[in-house]
Amino acid sequence: MSFDFDQLNAAIAAHGSVVRVVIVDIKGSSPREVGASMVVWDGGQQGSIGGGALEFEAAAAARAGQLGVSTHALGPDLGQCCGGAVTLVTEGFDAPLSPAPSFARNIGGADDIPGIVAKFQTDIAQGNALGKLLYRKGWLVEAAQDPKARPVWVWGAGHVGREVVDILGQLPHLRVTWLDYAPDRFPDTAKGHFTARLYDPVDQTAADAPQDAQHLILTHSHEVDLAICHALLARGFASCGLIGSSTKWARFRKRLIALGHAADRVDRIACPIGDKSFGKHPAAIAVSVAHAVLSGQESHGGRLGGDTA
Fold this sequence. Notes:
Blueprint: H1 5-15, E1 18-27, E2 37-41, E3 44-47, H2 52-63, E4 68-73, E5 85-93, E6 102-106, H3 115-125, E7 133-136, E8 139-143, E9 150-155, H4 159-168, E10 174-180, E11 195-198, H5 202-207, E12 214-217, H6 222-235, E13 239-242, H7 246-258, H8 263-266, E14 269-270, H9 282-295
Parallel strand pairs: 9-10, 9-12, 10-11, 12-13, 13-14
Antiparallel strand pairs: 1-2, 1-5, 2-3, 4-5, 6-8, 7-8
Helix pairs in contact: 4-9
């Protein structure tokens, strides 16, 4: 995992003071890996360090203002069956951070940066330690989120969008941007990491999307869906999937061609998405869509099957 400046700064902007908890060391078995983290605030959290008793206790301690380093024996202390021990660093943040290749800080060590930490920072700057973490001699340094992480833009924070982000946002090789028309559309709790953004107006927002992004269009409105398709066809994309039925897509295809887009370009949009054999429950749709994103099945006009809306 890696330090996500955008995600932390967005949480601060939305909630004020927040607390971040990160796993910095593991002995034996653990529900999550070194670098797994969560951001906690009063009434909510984003991300996960593994669920269960460890996460519950760590979130409660964070909200109570218990900052610093703590080690937890998962069996004796928490009654978990993993049997290992996990060391956590819990830090409070109330002001945004300037993005940088890495984030190093003193968590109770000597004032001078240890040589091993300085070398690790150099490795990060040279691109040799992306997505990694080092905790040594009371110093913690984390690489910023890998700039090579694949951008995924999820349009719509309804039931399906929430389930999709909960899955894709937990994967370190993906960088999720989650878009909707109002701030209160985003939930206070989410498993996955994401950067929230408003899409009003659609065309200007789409123009900012990386041309190598994968897009999933899952909004509440057919007219908004059409506007996003129109804007993304003008912008360009790696792949694009649209939730809907075959009937919806037939109408959209005609309208997009009438708007001036070439038929072969329009056919790069995959619709319907979601394997109908999984069912129409939002979580089932999300699982099948996430599988398509990870396997690349939704690109180049691939049909994933299933009338999902």
